[in-house]
Design goal:
three-stranded mixed sheet; about 180 residues; Rossmann fold; about 25% strand; 12 strands; alpha/beta
Length: about 180
């Protein structure tokens, strides 16, 4: 996809995501800064911030776990390892995500059961395990391009299903299966 295609898809994705009732009522959203060819998150993050939503962004730690910082806007992002952009402000700790009403997750694909295929680093698997251990129950939403919703993706015993996927053309809800 061209940079223009990615930007257009990001704008459409933001419009679709903002239709989610979970985002409409959220006070705090854990998001991420898209990089490379990932679906753009800039428009969605900005729309949430304009609404007065506290947006948390991940900070990749040396062990690939995630700390969190507050999104203070595009001018307050700094380059980090693996080509990521991270918030410049204070670090809030790995547990900060447990206070989020919605967690937006990156992914390569999601299947029709809600199982997410990540990039294999395990950072978000740790986040999902941390949420479960804390008894936190935020809406788990993956942001994808059209065509990244598949019939089935590989699954490991530690994987947890997400509640919804948002693509530029629509919202897709899943019924998490019993674990």
């Amino acid at each position: 996809m061209t940079a223009d295609d990615i930007e257009k898809a990001g704008a459409a994705l933001a419009c679709r995501a903002l239709e989610l009732p979970e985002l409409a009522g959220a006070a705090t959203v854990a998001a991420y800064v898209s990089v490379g060819g990932e679906p753009g998150t800039h428009a969605l993050r900005e729309a949430l911030r304009v609404r007065g939503v506290r947006v948390l962004l991940p900070v990749l730690l040396e062990d690939d776990d995630l700390d969190w910082g507050e999104d203070e806007g595009p001018g307050r992002l700094a380059p980090a390892r693996r080509g990521l952009l991270e918030p410049e402000g204070p670090r809030l700790g790995t547990e900060a995500v447990t206070g989020a009403d919605v967690v937006l997750l990156p992914g390569l694909a999601v299947d029709r059961r809600g199982m997410r295929l990540g990039r294999g680093g395990g950072s978000y698997d740790r986040v999902l395990a941390r949420l479960a251990a804390a008894g936190a129950d935020p809406a788990l939403v993956v942001l994808l391009y059209d065509g990244e919703l598949l019939d089935e993706v590989p699954e490991e015993p530690h994987d947890r299903p997400v509640h919804a996927a948002v693509t530029p053309s629509g919202l897709h809800r899943f019924t998490p299966r019993p674990r």
